[in-house]
């Protein structure tokens, strides 16, 4: 008999053994939950996600293909503690074993709650919650647009309040789904349709209470964008008072319930009528008081001396004008006389101080030509110099023959 060495050897190729291992892994672990910390996360342009799960001792490569990750409500990121469900397999091209993930859940907090927090933080940073962007709600709208389910409790509550408070207002309902995968697109489309039609003054986005999953369409980004971009004011009335949605933060006003939304947007008709009646009474009293005051003034004017004897008043004013004119003339003459006397005195003083007036008393002034220098000392002259002598009357020009 042949011994073991004589038995035929079975030799595997690398591809064969890799496929064999893949089959064994996939058959042995068709569906497992694995806990770990996410790292090396990459979202490929194809839409597939690649990452690793690690703990203190090991690292496991993972892949989550687009068809599976499209339903994720939150955004995975490095450092996140997660639970992954999927099957173990082998990537034959590299011989790496990996987890093909079908589901991911954040550990310690629900996926929806985490998605809510992530979207809220991102939209807040973009400025979608800024108070400066809020539009004032009209005090008395003539038409209100309602985005809600036509069969839900929310629309019944709003209509009841509207009929009770102000039945004249027009209510236009744009029916939508408020739960399920199609709800978000229908809600966003309804808000945009009201903006396009411009047939209402304010929009109420409403839904009754429910779980986080039930209210989720109002936490979708497409709804938040539609509300933010609305040129008409939007009131968010989703769930109960304790419920908060992304729509609440983006809207121009949050109402705790659909009923409260109707109360906020519609005043009581009876209250408005009372306010109008009160204003009319105040206006009537005010006008009556003004008429009485003006009537009394008119009576006083009618009985006044100026209206009874107008010509006497004119004559008196004419006499006053003549008296003022006479007084003004006297004052002007007096001022001119005083100023004339002062002018004569100053003229006399100036004449007395005038050096030329001395010449009239027999003195003369001699200047050297052509410089015009006044000669006070004969030593300033020499034989042949020309001089000019001014007398009280007349001028004499001379030539120096001798200087003594």
Radius of gyration, taken over Cα atoms and rounded to an integer in Å = 55 Å
Helicity, as a percent range: 40-55%
Low-confidence stretches: none
Q: What letter string, H or E per element, gives the SSE order? A: HEEEHEEHEHEHEHEHEHHHHEEEE
Q: Main β-sheet, in a few words?
A: 5 strands, mixed, barrel
CATH secondary-structure class of the domain at 140-267: Alpha Beta
Proportion of strand residues: 15-25%
Tags for this model:
404 residues, alpha/beta, OB fold (Dihydrolipoamide Acetyltransferase, E2P), Rossmann fold, five-stranded mixed beta barrel, five-stranded parallel β-sheet, 11 helices, 14 strands
Overview of the molecule:
- The chain is an alpha/beta fold and 404 residues long.
- Among the domains are: 95 residues, Nucleic acid-binding proteins (OB fold (Dihydrolipoamide Acetyltransferase, E2P)), CATH 2.40.50; 128 residues, Rossmann fold (3-Layer(aba) Sandwich), CATH 3.40.50; 41 residues, no CATH class.
- 41% of the residues lie in helices and 22% in strands.
- It is built from eleven helices and 14 strands.
- The strands form three sheets. It has a five-stranded mixed beta barrel.
- Helix 4 links the parallel strand 6 and strand 7.
- It is elongated, with a radius of gyration of 55 Å.
- The chain starts with 13 loop residues before the first helix and ends in a 5-residue tail after the last strand.
